[in-house]
Design a protein that fits this description.
Length: about 325
């Protein structure tokens, strides 16, 4: 029974975590970026400076709101006088951070030669044909980078989780990539994968004949942005040693105080995300003497894909 209650206790924390889900694609219509969750924490000293409500600033703001300057101001427990927040069941000031909008900026693609390999039949003495397995593989990197533009410093104790689904932009194989990073910190991640053919690519060569196996793909870069907003909620505790309207202790809504003082109620930030991926991979077999000649069809074209990969970004 105890485990059941513990599970219920932890569920809100699990669902509150900010998550970003990215799906790449060959076109903007195929790509998407989605967001869920929020991060809620008691306001920190750093965040008080971001909202310009250090002790002196908050006293001035309360004076504009209530018409009288308090002697003491608090935004969280503990406080003197037997912890007023607990005593009167007042809400401490909390900061809520959440993503509020997202957009795909664009997808840029270009064809690339990933690797090439030459096979040649040097069996001149017997004049026999020789069969070769012209399969080819090469290690590449899938990448993701995050850069931030922030409107103020926040103390975010929980990492943001990212899940990248290569979707229509995948060349096959493992397509789900995941990692976690701190809010506001520029990051760059890379994941090594091996691109190539999973089956034999058989070619038969005459004596002296050579072929070139070329692994080609389309390299894509998906760029997107996610907008975040942080806001405050809860009560400012103001103590008036000489009383205000007959009372020493007052609870003021923090946003009402901010508005009265002309202070910002929201802090905005933007995260730009760039994902590098590969699509449309193939292995082409061409007679070496015909390579780079126009209007010459390949001897053979074989689909390629991801044949091995690390599980997570490094």
């Amino acid at each position: 029974m105890m485990s059941k209650y513990l599970l219920l206790l932890f569920l809100p924390a699990i669902y509150a975590r900010i998550g970003i889900k990215i799906t790449t694609g060959e076109t903007e219509a195929d790509a998407s970026v989605e967001y869920t969750g929020e991060n809620v924490e008691i306001i920190s000293d750093m965040e008080r400076q971001t909202w310009r409500i250090g002790d002196e600033g908050l006293k001035k703001a309360c004076e504009k709101f209530a018409g009288s300057r308090p002697g003491d101001v608090y935004v969280r427990s503990p406080t003197p006088w037997n912890d007023v927040y607990r005593r009167f069941n007042w809400d401490q000031v909390k900061r809520t951070l959440k993503p509020v909008s997202s957009r795909v900026l664009g997808i840029h693609t270009k064809p690339v030669i990933v690797a090439s390999r030459t096979f040649k039949n040097n069996n001149h003495r017997t004049g026999a044909k020789v069969k070769y397995n012209a399969a080819i593989a090469h290690q590449i990197e899938e990448t993701i980078s995050n850069t931030w533009s922030v409107g103020g410093e926040l103390t975010v104790g929980q990492e943001i989780t990212y899940n990248v689904n290569l979707g229509a932009g995948s060349v096959g194989g493992t397509t789900s990539l995941s990692y976690a990073a701190n809010w506001g910190n520029d990051t760059s991640k890379a994941k090594a994968v091996t691109l190539g053919t999973t089956t034999s690519v058989e070619v038969e060569l005459n004596p002296g004949q050579a072929v070139v196996a070329t692994l080609t793909a389309t390299h894509g870069t998906l760029e997107m942005e996610v907008d975040y907003e942080a806001e405050l909620s809860g009560s400012v505790f103001a103590n008036y040693p000489s009383k205000l309207n007959g009372h020493y202790f007052w609870s003021f809504d923090v946003n009402a105080v901010l508005r009265a003082a002309g202070l910002p109620t929201h802090v905005k930030s933007t995260e730009k995300i760039s994902v590098g991926f590969y699509t449309s991979a193939t292995v082409e077999i061409n007679d070496k003497i015909m390579v780079n000649k126009p209007n010459v069809k390949p001897m053979k074209v074989v689909p390629a894909g991801i044949i091995s990969s690390r599980r997570h970004f490094m």
